[in-house]
Amino acid sequence: MRNALFVYNPVSGGHKIPNELDYILASFQKNGILVQPYRLEDGERENITHLLESGIYDFVIASSGDGTINSVANILLDKKIEVPIGIIPSGTCNDFAKCIGINSLQESIDIIIDGKILECDVGIINNSQYFLSTFAGGNLVDVSFSTNSDLKKNFGPFAYYLKGLSEVANIKSFDLQLNADGQSIEGKFLLFLIVNGRQAAGFPNLVNDADLTDGFMDIILVKKCSNINLASIFFKVLSKESVNDKNVIMLKAKNCDISSKSHIALTIDGEKSELFPAKIEFKNKVLKVFAPLKL
Question: What range(s) does the DAGKc domain occupy (predicted)?
């Protein structure tokens, strides 16, 4: 039998995983995979690192929101532990899971059992922290931290949309300086997003031609504009239209430097960050992830 470490957040997604734990273990066991559950609590990085470095496990499975999956991936990359990671999404947005084509519990189990592996890109910020789907900055990124937990439980990503719309009138611009593969941009902006796949912040198909394996990041800059224009951009994204707008700059790069004289709220894969100014580099095909054959 193959062995897998199953790291899960017991409270993520309304305690979804504890309620399904026996089913998950049985599904893998029937297919020759012996899974050891590891209940995640604060300050567990050292223990998880020790377990993954032991050589006992053929792969690791992470189940939670994007932040926990980011933490496990950072251990693998920091310690150069070359085992694949399987994703069982149980958070609110599950951006990275959806970027690689995983949308449900059963689908994620089937994909891991099937065993096909995608070697995907990751971004690294200031040579210290990796991100899988999104590095973002601006007032709007605070939405995920101020959204009521009951609202998130009942409405999922739509809770963020509702909260974001309510904050449009209060959003303040900030100065931003960006250098991406030699192209310089400077001005007043409301939001920046650096993304690795099609989905970010719960918005599906935000970048339709994004590729997890091409070595390039997609950079989205929302210029300072009126509340009406910002709401228009917001609704375009909600309706899954292309974000083709005079107030939005989109570009691709392998490296970029980004800075500001203003204080900016930041998030890395849905978790708060203080890594700024930021030097971002994209690493091509360095993380092995169980994924469907076609994305």
Answer: 1-130
